[in-house]
Amino acid sequence: MAIQGIDFANLSLKDALDLAILVEDEAQERYEEFATQMDQHQTPHAAQFFRYMVKNEAKHGQELQARRVQRFGDAPRSVTRAMIFDIEAPDYDAARAFMSPRKAMEAALASEVKAHAFFVSALPALKDSEVRALFEELRDEEVEHQEMVQLELAKLPPDSGLSDEDFVDEPAAQ
Amino acid sequence: MSTTGTLEYTPKDYKSDLKPIWCPGCGDFSVVQGIYRALAAIGRPPHEIAFVSGIGCSSRIPGYTTAYGFNSVHGRALPIAQGIKLANPDLLVLAAGGDGDGFSIGGGHIAHLIRRNMDITYIVMDNQIYGLTKGQLSPTSQKGRVTCTSRYGSMEEPVNPLLYVLAYGAGFVAQASPTDLVGMAATIEEAIRYPGFAFVNVQSPCVTYGEEAQQIKGLKAISESLQSLGHNPADRLAAMDLAQQYGQKMHLGVFYRNPEPPPTYGDLVKERQTLLSKDALPKERILDLFIKK
Fold first, then answer.
1. Which domains are present in chain B?
2. A159: which of A87, A166, B83, B94 is 20 to 30 A away, CA to CA?
């Protein structure tokens, strides 16, 4: 998780909204990548869950985008994707060959926890009251997202007891 | 000559329709993303880029881009890339592969591209293992590493890729990692912009045969940005000093950038051609050289 070149003390509401949109975009893109990886490796249930996360992230992104447009129109954006990394997106190695839906959900849950930690850690530096209110709202939403994933997790039957390591070919001498 | 005009490219413009078949979680997924971002920042259209690789998991990478791609012969990415660059100097030429491809099978080629200062960016995805062939010892595997070809632990010291290329006099040497995609994209972009041979070692974890310490969590624990250390990339000796910590520390960023890059081999060839063409016969009389009158 990294942020570069953003001065939280002087963050404007427009930049804060753009930042939040970029965070959702990044997560959406990563889940899309993971879903494709699962398709390639014949793991449809994990792919299905990652696509569910793509939809969720896209929905949140669109909601934020609508607020941004309503308030600031098409004023140019001054924050970029190059300023953020892995805020809400799962780590690249969170995907695994033949991962179970449970493992996929646990990866998403860890990402929601990570995003919550980001908003909590940024709050003390914020000076603008509107930006603070937005970050508090986003922080609380991350808790809701965690609850949503936990609900999905609770619906699952227990894992088979096999781990992804059980599907890995043994190293081979040549 | 570039034909970009005022067109702007996005990372998606460099992404092909081919779906990567790397193991899910493989570090190479982030490397290809870093390359898309770097190419978009450079802004050359895909048809002006040639991407050459050897053999191995990471060598599949040209196929995942919209650039001209050549998934070539084991260890031979660099000589092929060199041929392409000399035949069409206007192309932006990238070469990529794994640590085995670059430092074992193809190890002999690096020195020659460096001494010629070929204007090629070479990206090595260093995972310290032969992953595609299922987990044998590679040239950068740590001493003591147990694999199917080293059952009692490797008895060999690993090759240090950073020190290797610095010792041969490479003009641009950097290291990146999937732990910092933004930094990786910036580093690759800087390497491409360097006028000459540029080397980027990417610590790209093998999630299937790699060791725990070489996974993203382990790499994060030993990573340190060279910029945060106040390292001066123009100082080659300081770069060599830092490069010696390969395997213990993961320094990210530019180790060395020659502040006064020498002419590239392509420049010298052009210069020689211009010089010789002054006294050369016109094309229509070229056969006179072979015909006795």
1. 11-262 (3.40.50.970)
2. A87
